[in-house]
Write a structure and sequence with these properties.
The protein is built from eight helices and 13 strands. By secondary structure, it is of the alpha+beta class. Strands 2-11-7-13-5-4-3 form a seven-stranded antiparallel beta sheet. A four-stranded antiparallel beta sheet has the order 6-12-8-10, with no helix packed on it. A hairpin with a 6-residue loop joins strand 3 and strand 4. The protein is globular. The termini are far apart. The N terminus is likely disordered.
């Protein structure tokens, strides 16, 4: 019996952005923490869950020890050296120089970082916050060199992931592993507490292949000054900084407004960055109506749930030098 063809049905756009000439602030329509069992019985105590719900982020001081950090820094250095002279879309250089800013898709290196993604300390926190199994939708290492590391303007990751990648709901969490001490003065990540409760619909439209420029300097899909001021006022004028020693780990909601200033200090800043997405929130067609961004920015090919693997990683930690 012949079946009628069913065209792809995209989820209703709950968060339209870049569709008009004016910015708009709307309330979040998704839960912040999804308490589905058995994932609600995770490593985070109730006070941490409450803090995340209210502020949109959690910073764990020295979740990885000194020896583990040393090995991660060695692996980061190897990756940077391997990509230093490689010209490719997934290797982002600082504007006006040959200094590497980011290397993407490191979770497919077949080695250390592919195992680090599965670390149970990270995966179980992500599962508890998102209330489901998770998969990785993006990974990268970031490096902000001393004296010349450029700023990155305020933005919500979800706004881009929704418009340009087709992420339907706010059910993803970013994980940043700090590999160098983060001070107030070397361009640490800044976050607006409580900003995840609101979605800033940005004016304008999306240029074709916008990612080629936005990864160096984001100008599309960023909040206007009035919206940004309103969000900060909702936080009683408070802007937090993710400062702490190497080995600390920051988890933040996909819609938390964040950015970083330039680094004119002598001290570089580097981190490993993973984006865990719920297996119930897989990417659809971009809500911009354009072609999806490349695989290295938005994983569509392998969306199987991560099975946390600590033994293999511990072996790598033990034998790496």
């Amino acid at each position: 019996m012949k079946q009628d063809f069913q065209p792809f049905q995209q989820t209703i756009d709950k968060y339209p952005s870049r569709v008009g000439g004016q910015a708009e602030i709307m309330e979040r329509k998704d839960a912040v923490v999804h308490g589905n069992r058995p994932f609600s019985q995770g490593p985070l105590p109730e006070k941490d869950i409450t803090y995340f719900k209210e502020n949109g982020y959690l910073l764990f001081q020295q979740l990885f020890n000194e020896q583990e950090v040393t090995i991660m820094k060695d692996e980061l250095k190897k990756t940077m050296q391997q990509n230093q002279n490689r010209e490719a879309d997934d290797v982002i250089k600082e504007p006006g120089s040959n200094e590497i800013r980011s290397v993407f898709e490191i979770h497919k290196d077949g080695g250390f970082f592919e195992e680090l993604v599965k670390n149970e300390r990270l995966v179980h926190i992500a599962e508890q916050l998102l209330g489901s199994q998770v998969y990785l939708t993006q990974s990268r290492i970031n490096f902000k060199p001393g004296f010349k590391g450029k700023e990155f303007y305020w933005h919500s990751d979800f706004e881009t992931w929704h418009v340009e990648d087709g992420m339907p709901d706010m059910r993803a969490v970013s994980c940043s592993i700090v590999l160098t001490d983060n001070y107030e003065f070397n361009g640490p990540l800044m976050l607006v507490p409580g900003s995840h409760k609101w979605f800033v619909s940005c004016p304008g439209s999306t240029p074709e292949k916008n990612y080629k420029e936005s990864l160096k300097k984001q100008e599309t899909g960023v909040p206007d000054n009035d919206s940004m001021s309103w969000l900060v006022n909702q936080a009683d004028g408070h802007i937090d900084r993710a400062t702490g020693p190497a080995g600390s780990v920051l988890f933040f909601d996909c819609n938390t407004m964040h950015g970083s200033a330039g680094n004119i200090s002598p001290y570089p800043r580097s981190n490993v960055f993973f984006v865990y997405n719920s297996v119930e929130n897989k990417l659809e067609e971009p809500f911009s109506g354009q072609d999806p961004r490349p695989e290295f920015l938005a994983n569509r090919e392998n969306t199987e749930a991560i099975s946390s693997n600590n033994k293999r990683l511990q072996d790598l930690f033990s034998h790496s030098s």
